[in-house]
Design goal:
Layout lengths: L7 H12 L12 E8 L4 E8 L5
Antiparallel strand pairs: 1-2
Length: 56
């Protein structure tokens, strides 16, 4: 994925939300997260669903 706003930053934001460490951006009660990133020139896309054991 692109390392900027369309990729890895989305994944790190999702992890921070789930950890409860997102500061002013924190979503109250976040238990699951979906991050979708793209890279290359309209050629590569990836999605990931994250959550802790309590989200199963």
């Amino acid at each position: 994925m692109h390392p900027g706003m369309l990729g890895a930053f989305l994944l790190t934001e999702a992890v921070q939300q789930l950890r409860g460490s997102a500061g002013d951006r924190q979503v109250a009660g976040a238990r699951t997260a979906l991050a979708h990133g793209m890279g290359f020139t309209l050629g590569g896309h990836a999605s990931v669903v994250l959550g802790g054991a309590d989200a199963l």
